[in-house]
Amino acid sequence: MGNKKIAVVFAGQARTFRYCYKTHLEFFKKEGYEFDFFIHTWSDQWYSDKIGSATNIENPRQEDAKQLEKELVEIYKPKAIKVEKQKECEQLIGDIKSLIRLQKSCNNKNETDHFAWSDLDIDKSIERWLQGAHVGQIYSWQQAANLKIDYQKKNNVKY
User: Fold this and answer.
1) Pairing outcome for strands 44-45 and 61-62
2) Could you tell me what percent of the chain has a pLDDT over 70?
3) Between helices 17-27 and 65-76, what is the axis angle to 10°?
4) Nearest Cα to 42, choosing from 18, 76, 69, 77?
5) DSSP state of 134
6) For all residues of the chain together, what is the average pLDDT?
7) What b/e string do you get for 8-17 counting C-beta neighbours within 10 Å, with b at 16 or more?
8) Residues 6+ apart with CB under 8 A from 122
9) What is the pTM of this model?
10) CA-based angle 50:56:61, to the nearest 5?
């Protein structure tokens, strides 16, 4: 009987992988198991404004998408990978615009008006959704999971 196959799904901003990839690889080195990596990440990366970082949504760190993908492939040898620019991702921005329209149509507000951004222009509203609601992270989880599902179907693999 062969090794048990386990899918490892990485998603989100790959801000610190250069510092922790060795630990990842060591963790996923277990006898009797075979780990397949699936990665969705963003080439534009930032931290929350709350921590006072120099890289924030208005001043993101810009990675070269091709170089970032090359590095991740060399390190993790993923079965599938997708690198996108978050602030230019048409599907994500379209989803956010739909959420903004829904919010406006419902006149959605909470006690602090934290997610009531209907008075902002559309670009500022999109940035608030990307920064505060973490929709980019959720989208990235979905994309990474889809990479795994597509690979499973195409290659008749079960995890």
Assistant:
1) antiparallel
2) 81
3) 20
4) 69
5) -
6) 85
7) bbbbbbbbeb
8) 97, 100
9) 0.82
10) 145
Candidates 110, 148, 149, 153; CA nearest to 132 is 110
Contact between 102 and 90 (Cβ < 8 Å): no
Instruction: Give the torsion sign (CA, 68, 73, 75, 78).
Output: positive
DSSP 8-state class, residue 3:
P
Identify the H or E element spanning 45.
strand 44-45
Structure tokens at 34: 């075979």
Q: Is the dihedral of CA 87, 77, 138, 46 positive or negative?
A: negative
Residue-by-residue DSSP string for 79-103: SEEEEE-GGG-HHHHHHHHHHHHHH
pLDDT in tens, 20-61: 999 999 999 999 999 999 999 999 887 665 556 666 667 677
